[in-house]
Amino acid sequence: MIQSALKHFYLTHPVPNPINITLTQKQVVDGQRIDDEVSSANFKHFRNLLNSHLFGNAYKRHGRQLAMLVVRENGAWHRHHLHAILEKPDHLTTEEFVALVLTCWTKTRFGYHEHHFEQPETRD
Length: 124
What we know:
Layout: H1 2-12, E1 18-25, E2 28-29, E3 32-33, H2 36-55, H3 57-62, E4 68-75, E5 78-87, H4 94-106, E6 111-118
Antiparallel strand pairs: 1-5, 1-6, 2-3, 4-5
């Protein structure tokens, strides 16, 4: 049921020029355990870093930002992580964008080095 709701949301709000990404998070930093609230704050910091780098003052002044769809996943058997679909700016190659995303992600407090990127297949 959740998957069909997410699929419906994505189909009605598509992310242009998408890149699929999985970002893992550190489970404990300086004695603080990650939870949904900390994870949300960590991702917000990442989003701010990424959009500020790409759009400069226009991010805060005019609200210019990348389109994103993010789902948090955690459980007893795997590391707390995020699945996201991010809009890749046209002026960057996939490799440049991935490098920028990883740079911004590792600057966050809970950003972990495990990640996965995938460019979705286009359907005509």
